[in-house]
Amino acid sequence: MKLVLLSGGSGKRLWPLSNDLRSKQFLKVLEDDEGSRVSMVQRVWGQVTEAGFAGSGYIATGSSQTELIRGQLGADVPLIIEPTRRDTFPAIALAAAYLFSVEKVDPDETVAVLPVDPYVEERFFTTVASLDGVLRETGADLALIGVKPTYPSEKYGYIVPEEGVEAHEGSFQVGGFREKPSEQAAEELIARGALWNCGVFAFRLGYMLNIMEAKGISFSYEQLSSDYSSLESISFDYEVVERANNVAAVAYDGYWKDLGTWNTLTEEMKDTRMGRGIVSDDCVNTHLVNETDIPVTILGLSNIIVAASPDGILVAEKGASTKLKDFIGYGQRPMYEERRWGWVRVLDDRAYEDGTSVLTKRVGIEGGKSIGYRLQQHREEVWTVVKGEGEFICNGTYMKVRAGNVLHIPMKTLHGVRATSDLEFISVQTGPRHLENSIMELYSSWEEIEQNCMRA
User: Which residue intervals define the domain Nucleotidyl transferase in the entry (predicted)?
Assistant: First the structure.
């Protein structure tokens, strides 16, 4: 059995901590058993490993998230990379092509797909593992997992059993789906045995390949990656699940929660305050999450979330935070990014009438990590080292750098840096705004740079 975790998202529902480059699953706001801060993706990948899926699990993600995933999970995490952001059907088709053409998975093998960020108990993955047996025992095309509802929620979709069809050893035949019903309708659905749809389903790889063949979609991962932008952007639920004739489902009665909004996420946070600031003792159910150096003080307010980051500040009543994505549209660049080697924070971004721009960033590189050997085709940079020590190579010339050094890097100049201790520098980039991302990288690792780029 293969496990594919879908990692995507636009980064709006947990703004201002999340943005287009750092979706909710990467926010380190949860705690592991040792009390260390972890993200949702780190938590679930640890559970996948504990459940015995480490050798058969993959993460399907967009190219913009690969550095962040590898930074949080390690360089060896198996990734299936989407060239552009599409919907879940193209993503799963690409995963199927990868498993078939690259991993040589047998078409008869079961593939289970689930979101990368479920907040569940470890035994949830025992239920995931059972889907293989459900497919083989029932002959169903698809097998789903539904969560037994604890209340008539209007926020979730429901899996509705087929009336008059007996359950088969823990699974039942699906009669239909209902998306976000009213509370009264949800009560009626629950009385009929309906389950919350948690977005988990399984199929034999050959089933998906047959669908792709009927649509003229290539089985070759390389070819499909090349053609990816031409695929229709549509969800797997609409394109496959709701059109399938034979769908089985199994119930999961353990703890499950969607941490996609501030009010649900803060329910799983052990501390009411993260970052610099104060929440007074007379505040009830109020949380502060502050990623800035500016102190924030909250006095006498209850049921409030205050979140601050370089991208902005949110002050909201927790119930109202579910509407957040309807109000976020500032059109600004992500002001904070995590990278596999550290982080980048935008300090200032100025555009001028002549078409040039000046972008100022604070860049942090963790000790022992490095930025690849690269050049800016249309921008020049000035780096001012403000913390730590490192090694710097510019057009083959090697030098050691430390706090206080100023480095001028003309455009089209190859350069790379490695931190021997935690290193920070201020980068001021100057050049045309529309050519900001014209970067070419020759080597990505420091070992390659040392072997190929250093002058004798």
Answer: 4-272
Query: Which stretches of the chain drop beneath a pLDDT of 50?
Result: 456
Question: DSSP string covering 278-302, please?
Answer: EE-TT--S-EEEE-SSS-EEE-S--
For residue 37, give Cα distances in angstroms to 28, 42, 138, 231: 5, 10, 42, 38
* H-helix or E-strand spanning residue 66: helix 66-73
DSSP reduced 3-state for 205: helix
pLDDT tens, position by position, 229-272: 899 999 999 999 989 989 999 999 889 988 888 988 999 888 89
Return the number of other C-beta atoms located less than 10 Å from residue 10's C-beta: 14
Task: Give the model's pLDDT for residue 456.
Answer: 46
Omega prior to 16 cis, within 30 of 0: yes
Residue bearing tokens 């289970």: 112
Q: What is the CATH number assigned to the segment(s) 2-257?
A: 3.90.550.10
Residues 6+ apart with CB under 8 A from 24: 9, 11, 13, 14, 18, 40, 117, 259, 260, 265
| pLDDT 10s digits, 150-196 | 888 888 889 999 886 666 667 889 898 988 889 899 999 999 889 99
Phi, psi of 277 (to 5 degrees): 150, -175
DSSP for 143-203 reads EEEEEPPSS--SSSEEEEEPTT---BTTEEEEEEEEES--HHHHHHHHHTT-EEEEEEEEE
Q: Fill in the DSSP letter of residue 362.
A: E
Rounded distance between C-alpha atoms, residue 254 and residue 358, angstroms: 52
Domain 341-452: assigned CATH number:
2.60.120.10
* H-type alpha helices, 220-261: 221-227, 236-239
Phi-psi region of 130 (alpha: psi -120 to 50; beta: other; left: phi over 0): alpha
pLDDT of 319 reads: 87
Q: What is the largest distance, in Å, between two alpha-carbon atoms of the chain? A: 80
SS3 385: strand
Residue 395 and residue 413 in contact, taking contact as beta carbons nearer than 8 Å: yes
Domain residue spans in the chain? 2-257, 271-324, 341-452
Contacts of 93 (CB under 8 A, 6+ apart): 208, 212, 217, 224, 231
* Residue 113 identity: V
CA–CA dist 378, 422 (Å, integer): 29
